[in-house]
C-alpha cells in the first residue's frame, strides 16, 4: 500500500480501484482507494466552527504556505495531483480569513430555549466540501440547526458566493447535523446527503451543474436522530454503500414524559422495564441506576442508482464475537463512524464512536462480502467511554493504520 509517498498529494478526481472508500463525516481528506486521495466532507464539529453564546460562526483559516502558491498539477491514473507546499523557512500555521475576504456570511444559531428543551442540539452541526459544478474548485455546504442550510460556490482565490437558492438546496431541513458529498448514483458528479435530528437522512441528486433535486424515494429512513455518515463499497459491487449513526431525537434530565420505568432485582439480577429502551447500569446503595438506550444505526446497500436498501441487523449480516447472528439491533448513542481496512484484507471495516459509559464503541470486521463480525474485545483493551470522533493514519510509519479517538475530556 502506498502511504508516505502519497501523503503530499491531493486528488480532485476519483482513482479507479477494486474497492471504494468514500467520504466520511468527520474527516477533511479521506483516502478513497489504495491508489488515490480525494477531498471529503468534514461535517459534525470538524474545525471551522467557533461557539459564541449559542451560535456557531464560521471561521475560514488559510494555510500560510498556500497564499501565493501556484498549483503544479500532474496527471495521474484517473486523477490529477499536486504536491502540497511546505514552507522551507519561517513559521507554519494559518491565517484567519474574515467574511469580508471570503464572502461567507453564515452563522449556525442555536437559541438558549432550543438548547434547554433539547440538549442533543448542542452536539452541533457540520460542513461538507466538494466540487459540485465540475469547475475544479472545492465548494462548501453548511448545516444549520435553526436556520437554512447554505451552499457556497468557490470562485477561486478564497472567494465564495451563496448559491443556496439557485442550487435548489433552500429547503427546510430542521436541526441538520451532518452532511457529505458523494457520487451515489454513478453519474460522475457529487450528490449530497444530509442528516438531521428527528428527520433522519435525506438525499439530493446533482445534475452535474450544481443544481440539486431531492430524491424522496431513495429508501433512506426519514426519522431518528441521525448524526454522522460514512460511505464505502462494502461488498465489492462497485457502488458506495452508506452507514448512518444515530443518537436520539430528544433528551430528558430525568425520565421521559409518559414513560414508566421500573427497576428491580430478580434472582440477584438487575432487571429494568421497558427493556427495549432502558438498561440497568449499577447499584448504588439500595437503588438501581438506570441508563437510557440510544437508537439503532443504519447500514444501507446502494443499487448503483442512488437507491438504498437497509441491511438487517439480525439476518446474519452482523455477528457477535462468537460468530453468532445478533438477536436485536444495537441501540447505542452513535456520534461518528468511519470505514477503514483494519486487517489488511482490502475490505472496508467499520469503527463506530458511541457516547456514554453504557454504550461502547463498535468495531465490525468485514469478511469481504459485506458481512460483519464484532472484533474480539481482547484486540482492543482500552476504549473511550464517551467517544466523539475517530480518524486513522499510519502515525509511526510501520505500514499499518493507527487510529485516534477523541473524547469529550482530555486525560
Question: What order do the helices and strands come in, and which of them pair?
Answer:
Elements: E1 21-24, E2 29-33, E3 36-39, E4 49-52, E5 55-58, E6 60-63, E7 74-75, E8 80-81, E9 94-97, H1 99-102, E10 107-109, H2 112-117, E11 127-130, E12 139-142, E13 150-156, E14 159-162, E15 176-182, E16 191-196, E17 200-206, E18 212-214, E19 226-232, E20 241-246, E21 262-266, E22 269-273, E23 278-284, E24 287-292, E25 295-296, E26 298-302, E27 308-310, E28 318-319, E29 331-332, E30 334-340, E31 349-354, E32 362-366, E33 372-374, E34 387-393, E35 402-407
Parallel strand pairs: 28-33
Antiparallel strand pairs: 1-19, 2-3, 4-5, 5-10, 6-9, 7-8, 11-12, 12-13, 13-14, 15-16, 16-17, 17-18, 19-20, 20-26, 21-22, 23-24, 25-29, 26-27, 30-31, 31-32, 32-33, 34-35
Amino acid at each position: 500500500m502506498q502511504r508516505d509517498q502519497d501523503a503530499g498529494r491531493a486528488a480532485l478526481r476519483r482513482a479507479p480501484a477494486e474497492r471504494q472508500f468514500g467520504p466520511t463525516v468527520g474527516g477533511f481528506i479521506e483516502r478513497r482507494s489504495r491508489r488515490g486521495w480525494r477531498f471529503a466532507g468534514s461535517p459534525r464539529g470538524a474545525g471551522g466552527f467557533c461557539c459564541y453564546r449559542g451560535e456557531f460562526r464560521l471561521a475560514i483559516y488559510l494555510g500560510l504556505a498556500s497564499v501565493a502558491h501556484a498549483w503544479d498539477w500532474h496527471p495521474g491514473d484517473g486523477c490529477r495531483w499536486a504536491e502540497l507546499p511546505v514552507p522551507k523557512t519561517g513559521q507554519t500555521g494559518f491565517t484567519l480569513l474574515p467574511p469580508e475576504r471570503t464572502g461567507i456570511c453564515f452563522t449556525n444559531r442555536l437559541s438558549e430555549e432550543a438548547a434547554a428543551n433539547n440538549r442533543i442540539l448542542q452536539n452541533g452541526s457540520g460542513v461538507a466540501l466538494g466540487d459540485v459544478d465540475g469547475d475544479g474548485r472545492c465548494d462548501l455546504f453548511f448545516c444549520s440547526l435553526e436556520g437554512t442550510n447554505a451552499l457556497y460556490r468557490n470562485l477561486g482565490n478564497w472567494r465564495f458566493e451563496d448559491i443556496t437558492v439557485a442550487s435548489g438546496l433552500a429547503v427546510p431541513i430542521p436541526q441538520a447535523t451532518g452532511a457529505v458529498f458523494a457520487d451515489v448514483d454513478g453519474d460522475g458528479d457529487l450528490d449530497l446527503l444530509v442528516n438531521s435530528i428527528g428527520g433522519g437522512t435525506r438525499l439530493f441528486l446533482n445534475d452535474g451543474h450544481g443544481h440539486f433535486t431531492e430524491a424522496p424515494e431513495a429508501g433512506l429512513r426519514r426519522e431518528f436522530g441521525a448524526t454522522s455518515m460514512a460511505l464505502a463499497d462494502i461488498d465489492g459491487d462497485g457502488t458506495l454503500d452508506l452507514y448512518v449513526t444515530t443518537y436520539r431525537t430528544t433528551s430528558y434530565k430525568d425520565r421521559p414524559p409518559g414513560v414508566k420505568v421500573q427497576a428491580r432485582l430478580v434472582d440477584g439480577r438487575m432487571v429494568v422495564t421497558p427493556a427495549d429502551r432502558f438498561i440497568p447500569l449499577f447499584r448504588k446503595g439500595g437503588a438501581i441506576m438506570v441508563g437510557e438506550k440510544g437508537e439503532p444505526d443504519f447500514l444501507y446497500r446502494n443499487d448503483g442508482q442512488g437507491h438504498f436498501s437497509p441491511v438487517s441487523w439480525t439476518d446474519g449480516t452482523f455477528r457477535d464475537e462468537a460468530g453468532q447472528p445478533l438477536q436485536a439491533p444495537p441501540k447505542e448513542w452513535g456520534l461518528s463512524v468511519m470505514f477503514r481496512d483494519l486487517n489488511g484484507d482490502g475490505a472496508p471495516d467499520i469503527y463506530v464512536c458511541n457516547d456514554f459509559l453504557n454504550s461502547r464503541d463498535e468495531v465490525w470486521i468485514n469478511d469481504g462480502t459485506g458481512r460483519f463480525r464484532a472484533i474480539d474485545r481482547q484486540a482492543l483493551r482500552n476504549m473511550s467511554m464517551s467517544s466523539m470522533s475517530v480518524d486513522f493514519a499510519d502515525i509511526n510509519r510501520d505500514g499499518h493504520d493507527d487510529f485516534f479517538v477523541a473524547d469529550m475530556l482530555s486525560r
